[in-house]
Write a structure and sequence with these properties.
Elements lengths: L8 H7 L2 E2 L4 H7 L12 H4 L1 H14 L3 E3 L7 H6 L6 H16 L5 E7 L9 H22 L3 E7 L2 H13 L4 E5 L13 H10 L4 E5 L4 H14 L4 E4 L35 H13 L4 E2 L7 H10 L35
Parallel strand pairs: 1-8, 2-3, 3-4, 4-5, 5-6, 6-7, 7-8
Helix pairs in contact: 4-6, 4-12, 6-7, 7-8, 9-10, 10-11, 11-12
């Protein structure tokens, strides 16, 4: 296996908080390169420069990790959109592009596996074999192309997460394993989210934590409990949406007439860059080691989060200077709008 980066994930974590940036699928859908619904990353082969550009924007904004866009690039999903013959090339190309852009800024490169929709806790042996085969395919290609570690994310089942971790371990790859938290308290196979993270930590995951589903306010209380329960680094990649105790996960947002707003009518709930910057600081304060963003995230969020954590990024050259605006910058106390801590 060729490891792309000079420093390992473990060494990066020892230096301080690692900043991640995801949400590639949502952002590329907004830009017109991925179809909402299947969310299969056909952009990898159809419009590779669009993917390069988004990687580069996240890198400039301060992300320490370029994640290969292989989310939903597994056999069953590609079959759904008639791209089954593109499986290998799509996976290899995603890792190549991540490597190419990571080299421009010394970032880590992460392979990526995710919830497959194939796992059935009522039949874990048969369904687990299907899941394992999909992960083995994807990660074998990732290893050949070169990755530093794997992000195994958006897990709904502890059983599926353990399979992903086992495949990573069989290939000698450190794994960051994170759970979606769609339900209020437990995974779909009945584990409290804190317990789920502890199971994966005890099984040898390099990092454990949460991604997707929850916004900052509903993810932070869980993160605090996870941090107290495990001895490995903790990862947090919330969605930038204002979830609440009544609606802890963004999949459940509804309009007044009962219409589901997930996944393409979420703008009324969008967090500002300042809210995400505040999340980054609060996460660091409770001991989160890997701070990122998930579906709905964009480069301006990542830059604000990085700056809130004390970074000066390439994109910081263009950070807001509202005091220079011909109207807003003339008195009235508007100068504070240029800082991450503005509300």
């Amino acid at each position: 296996m060729t490891r792309p980066s000079e420093k390992t994930l473990e060494e990066r974590l020892a230096d301080g908080v690692v900043i991640g940036a995801e949400g590639y699928v949502f952002e590329l859908e907004r830009r017109g390169y991925i179809k909402a619904g299947p969310f299969v990353p056909e952009v990898i082969l159809d419009e590779p420069d669009a993917l390069r550009q988004l990687h580069r924007e996240f890198l400039r904004a301060g992300s320490d990790v370029m994640v290969a866009l292989t989310y939903y690039a597994h056999r069953d999903k590609l079959k759904d959109v008639g791209r089954g013959d593109d499986l290998e090339e799509m996976n290899r190309q995603a890792v190549r592009i991540a490597n190419e852009i990571a080299a421009e800024g010394g970032a880590l490169v992460a392979g990526n596996i995710c919830n497959t929709w194939s796992f059935d806790p009522a039949d874990p042996v048969t369904s687990g074999a299907v899941v394992r085969a999909q992960y083995e395919e994807q990660l074998a290609w990732a290893v050949e192309e070169g990755v530093d570690f794997v992000i195994a994310e958006t897990n709904d089942f502890v059983g599926e997460a353990l399979i992903g971790l086992e495949v990573c371990q069989s290939l000698g790859l450190p794994a960051m394993v994170t759970f979606a938290s769609v339900q209020s308290e437990k995974t779909y196979d009945g584990y409290d989210y804190v317990e789920a993270c502890k199971v994966l930590a005890d099984a040898g995951a390099a990092l454990v934590g949460l991604n997707c589903s929850r916004g900052p306010e509903t993810m932070l209380p869980l993160l605090e409990r996870i941090r107290a329960a495990v001895d490995v680094p903790v990862a947090a990649q919330p969605v930038p949406y204002r979830t609440t105790a009544a609606t802890p996960a963004f999949e459940a947002f509804e309009a007044g007439d009962g219409r589901h707003l997930f996944p393409i009518q979420l703008e009324p709930f969008q967090c500002t860059r300042f809210e995400m910057a505040e999340f980054a600081v609060r996460a660091r304060e409770i001991g989160v080691d890997y701070v990122g963003i998930c579906c709905g995230g964009a480069p301006h969020h990542v830059r604000a989060m990085a700056e809130a954590l004390g970074r000066v990024t390439p994109a910081s050259r263009y950070s807001p200077a509202i005091e220079l605006h011909p109207i807003l910058g003339t008195g009235g106390g508007h100068e504070s709008m240029g800082g991450w801590d503005a509300k």
